[in-house]
Design brief:
CATH topology: Rossmann fold
GO molecular function: hydrolase activity
Number of domains: 1
InterPro entries: AB_hydrolase_fold, Dienelactn_hydro, FrsA_esterase
Keywords: Hydrolase
Number of strands: 8
Structural class: alpha/beta
Largest sheet: 8 strands, mixed
Pfam families: DLH
Number of helices: 6
Organism: Streptomyces melanosporofaciens
CATH class: Alpha Beta
CATH architecture: 3-Layer(aba) Sandwich
CATH superfamily: Alpha/Beta hydrolase fold, catalytic domain
Order of helices and strands: EEEHEHHEHEEHEH
Length: 245
């Protein structure tokens, strides 16, 4: 495990001042980087810890914000903000590009080696960056089997990995089929992992506030999904340099 440094970063997007979490690996050299998107509730310590874990692996990692520094623990408030956002690809892209600009301008980031990993709404943002033709090395998502506007998936220029719970009522089989059909028709190098018995947001530890129906933590699959994300990055965005002591 390497020594990392972290800091908050503020940047404008969606008419708000976003507050992201940047994690940097040891050293001073440029590194491959990961743009990390949160579930619809917004940026929390769960995503901050994931960014830190990626930095320990040698990546520059930015966990980006969706709601101007707010965490939306009220399900009705979260849906009221996220549903219009998910229905507006251009708005998602603007949020993604704003965060991506922050990550690219970080001196430790190799701007030619960036991947997007996201959960729920944050995963949908990553997919929209791909559909917008952004040069990424990989896109990894959990609970984000969103489909885009006709033909735009052909702009995706990197492998796409997606994970979903088999019992997720928010991403049911029909949604899975639509997503995989879109990826296949576009000629994308795609993979879908279905985690047996898991609900929506199965990767997210339990929270102390109400959640929408169909959400539930599954500890074994949460660990497996994280390993799958790390494996995706190792394949498509390897850290090849000697990290040192």
């Amino acid at each position: 495990m390497t020594k990392i440094t972290t800091r908050t970063v503020e940047y404008p997007a969606d008419g708000l001042t976003m507050i992201g979490h940047l994690a940097l690996p040891a050293g001073v050299d440029r590194r491959p980087a990961v743009l990390l998107g949160p579930e619809g509730m917004g940026l929390s310590d769960v995503e901050r810890r994931r960014a830190d874990a990626l930095a320990e692996l040698g990546y520059v990692a930015l966990a980006f914000d969706l709601h101007g520094g707010r965490y939306l623990g009220d399900p009705e408030e979260m849906l009221a903000r996220c549903m219009p956002l998910l229905a507006d690809p251009d708005r998602m892209r603007r949020i993604g590009h704003a965060a991506l600009d922050v990550l690219r301008t970080e001196p430790r980031t190799d701007p030619d080696r960036i991947a997007a990993v996201g959960y729920g709404t944050g995963g949908a943002v990553g997919l929209e960056l791909g559909r917008d033709g952004v040069s990424l090395r990989a896109i990894g998502t959990v609970n984000a089997l969103t489909t885009g506007r006709p033909g735009e998936a052909a702009r995706i220029r990197c492998p796409v990995w997606a994970g979903v719970g088999s019992e997720d009522p928010i991403m049911p089989p029909a949604q899975r089929n639509a997503f995989t059909a879109e990826m296949q028709a576009a000629g994308v190098d795609w993979r879908l992992a279905v985690y047996g018995g898991a609900l929506h947001a199965f990767h997210h530890p339990p929270v102390d506030h109400p959640v929408v129906p169909g959400v539930g933590y599954h500890s074994r699959h949460a660990q497996r999904a994280w390993r799958d994300v790390v494996d995706l990055l190792a394949e498509c965005l390897p850290v090849t340099e000697d990290l040192g002591a």
